[in-house]
Fold this protein.
Amino acid sequence: MAASSTDGLSIAYDTHERVRELIDRLTFYMESISLSFDAWDEDPRRYGPGLYLAVVVGPGYGSFADPMAKDAWPADPPPHPIEDEKPFFEQLTEVAYTCDGAVVLSVDGVVQPQLVRFRSLEEARDVEYASWMGARHMSAQEISTHPAVVSTLTVSQEDGRVTVFAHGKFSTTSRDTFGDGFRNGASLAAGER
């Protein structure tokens, strides 16, 4: 969400240092979860962990989201993704294997306990999808166009790719290129950070 500079009080969440740190940390966690699953190529009918996260501004996302029945964050209260790294990563891994729906986090890193299903947005009709995208990725791309959404992130259950969406655009990284140039494949699951 790009904030206007007309009132002097708006925050440019797209470039805000703490929000960027949050999104970078979430991306790292998701790559680590993908790397920790080593059976991607064994059986094309076997699915790995899947995730869908949405970083939002304020509590207004309820106007375009519905609760996912019993799917909820495994601990109450959920740990903070930056301040409580290990418990957050462990619980996010559990969500990746056992839950469906999107995890919603506010820009300050507070995790909403209830997972949600986002409704299609009328204003997202002009979004162009990539041929590899499934329903989770299409939803994440659409929802990333909403003014209350800073970013959405996904892990594909089919091949482990991690994709970050913002304003209807996306950047996707395949498992074989995670960490290129700075981590060389290190993962939190392997105890490295």
Summary: The CA atoms of residues 63 and 76 lie 24 Å apart. The first strand starts at residue 51 and ends at 56. Residues 17-36 form the longest helix (20 residues). The two ends are 29 Å apart (CA to CA).
